[in-house]
Amino acid sequence: MELHIAKDPAQLSENVAAWISNYILEVLQTQERFTFVLSGGNTPKQLYSLLAKAPYNMMIPWEKIHFFWGDERDVPFEDDRNNARMAFEELLDKVAVNPDNIHIMRTDISPEASATAYEQTLKSYFGKENTTFDLVLLGMGDDGHTLSLFPGTPVVHEKKAWVTSFFLEAQNMYRITLTAPVVNRAACVLFLTTGANKAITLKNVIEGTFDAEKFPSQLIRPEEGELHWFVDEAAAGAMEV
C-alpha cells in the first residue's frame, strides 16, 4: 500500500489527475484498451472536472478507455443522486469517449436484474483473465464504507458474486454494487479521501486491527495489484505519518 498526502482537496485532485493520466498512458503502451471503474459521491467531482480540461482532455486517449462503475443508487439516470449522471456531467460528456465503451449499471430494470446483467458484462470482459480492471477509483465514507459495502450489511461477506444488489434500510433504497472479490482482482485500486471528518476512520482502516464488519474499506486488498490511498492533510490528521 502506498499513501500519498496532499495539502488540501484542490491539490489532491491535481495530484491524482496527473497520476491517473500517466498511469493510463503507461498501461496503454502494452495493451489496446484501458478499463476504468468510476466512483460516485462528491469527492471525485473535482477530479473529473480536471480530467475534462487541458492538458488531460488532449493527453489521454479517451477512445481506448472502457468505463465502468463501482456502485449505483437505484434511482433514474435523471436523478441528481445517480452516480452515472454525475460522471457524464463532469467528464464523459466533455471528452472524446466512445459511447460503446461506457457501461453503466442500469436502473431502468429491477436491481436484481441489473446486478445480474452487470456481472455478465464483466465476465464477458474478464472471465478468462486473472486480472480484472486496470484501475478502480474508490471513495471512503466517514463510516468506513466503500462502494456500497456498508458496515454490518451481508454484502460485506460476499465471496463469489462480482456484482450484487440489496435494500439499504438506512437510506430507504436499493443499491447495486461491485463486491470485494472482483475489485481485489484489479491491477490497481486508488482510494480518494478528504476531510477531517474521516480522519479517525482512515486511521482505523489503514493502521487499525482488521475488522471488515465495522470498516468495510479494509476488504479492498488487491491480490496481486497495487493499492494507493490519496488523501489530504485533514484526512490524514490522526495517522502516524
Automatic annotation (TrEMBL):
Entry's EC annotation: 3.1.1.31
Catalytic activity field: 6-phospho-D-glucono-1,5-lactone + H2O = 6-phospho-D-gluconate + H(+)
GO MF, one example: 6-phosphogluconolactonase activity
Gene3D superfamilies: 3.40.50.1360
EC primary class: hydrolase
InterPro entries: 6-phosphogluconolactonase_DevB, 6PGL, Glc/Gal-6P_isomerase, NagB/RpiA_transferase-like
Transmembrane domains' residue ranges: none
Lineage: superkingdom: Bacteria
Family membership: Belongs to the glucosamine/galactosamine-6-phosphate isomerase family. 6-phosphogluconolactonase subfamily.
Function noted in UniProt: Hydrolysis of 6-phosphogluconolactone to 6-phosphogluconate.
UniProt protein name: 6-phosphogluconolactonase
Source organism: Chitinophaga eiseniae
Species classification: Bacteria, Pseudomonadati, Bacteroidota, Chitinophagia, Chitinophagales
Gene this protein is translated from: pgl
